[in-house]
């Protein structure tokens, strides 16, 4: 436990995306458990409503306060109620980023109210997302501190932020390049860059939003990162090198049930409601039932996070590759790129007869169902913690990465956006826990490549990578568990140090 504090107030400001809201909630829970601070998470009305309903259902979150910050999407060219990146095309995402700048005035009012309510004492600090660098100015104006929390890993964050701060990469002749803050041996490749950064020149829409925000985060009093020292030694060093501020590696912020040293494959409803305020596309029990029918380490889980999808032609090839692999699988499906991601799936997006073939049970031949198709949202944690799950075909979002490796499940990487390609690079080069299938949502993937990647991850062929990948993934799992072990874990100590620092004048 951290030293006793005087029960001040912490205000948290997550970016409006599930991949950010989820770790912010987890951070709030962790701080609350280890201190007496009052915590208020501030966000737009739709997001607050969802967060509240999650907190109501979870006793460990009940004491957390939520504050609505007034937000008018239509004033920024967004459809009404569009307050989250979920199912949002990239073209709208930039609008949401610019629109988020309008949260400054409501945040100032909130901080002023808290200050007034607490006899002129401002909040102890504002913990804000890396996309909200402006919160450092708000904190300063109220005579309090600001800490930046990156919901991504240290390696991925350092590469992402450093590349935006050191533009341009446009017209780069050679494929390989060094990224400031990283050692020379750690060369990056042009193919790691998503289009928006490859094409950025400092004066494009993304540069004009991201660069000032990242520069402002460097004025905060320190950074928190959702990782641990032993899990990402190179990334942690790179992040300190880049931001030149104190960095507390307080992660992975995962539910206790998933990190606990518990090898049982049973289901748990307590960890399934993972998307604030939205229902699951399938009951966790059905996934567990499917997984129970297959041998340990045999099932491939396919899911691309909360906001990514693939092209229609890749969807067909992925389906054909999964079929050709002859391995059992669970696939979380969303409409392909170019279609409304929140709409119903259509048969025409898959090879003819695919669903029927893979979900058929042949009683005579005693053949089990090969595939479980989940619409929109799966109970990912339950699936990953089941001993039958053998590999995760993932977009390499940081939460998915941590969730998978915390269970010793190796990754078949298909990074698509943000810092995902850097996560995949680190997992392949530094950790040896990932085979990369493709880079970019629009990369053309063939069924044979899919089949081979699956075989490399779950197959046992002599000379294949499977065994080594699984061993490395188990090593990663141990590092994660060690970091969050009460009393001795590096992340537990880092959290206590951070909390101690908050009460130090
Ligand atoms: O069917 C699903 C799909 C997702 N999830 C959960 O949703 C989260 C998804 O997070 P993540 O894997 O990080 O993916 P994104 O939603 O794409 O996350 C965004 O935020 C991350 C950092 O916070 C970044 O690493 C990513 O690049 C960025 O896209 C995870 O907790 C998953 O368990 C489910 O429970 N069921």
From TrEMBL:
InterPro entries noted in UniProt: Glyco_transf_N (IPR058980), UDP_glucos_trans (IPR002213), UDP_glycos_trans_CS (IPR035595)
Transmembrane in keyword set: yes
Domain (Glycosyltransferase N-terminal) ranges: 10-174
Gene3D superfamilies documented for this protein: Glycogen Phosphorylase B (3.40.50.2000)
EC nos: 2.4.1.-
Annotated signal peptide: none
Single GO MF descriptor: UDP-glucosyltransferase activity
Pfam families: Glyco_transf_N (PF26168), UDPGT (PF00201)
Keywords: Glycosyltransferase, Membrane, Transferase, Transmembrane, Transmembrane helix
TM ranges: 12-28
Family that this chain belongs to: Belongs to the UDP-glycosyltransferase family.
Name of protein: Glycosyltransferase
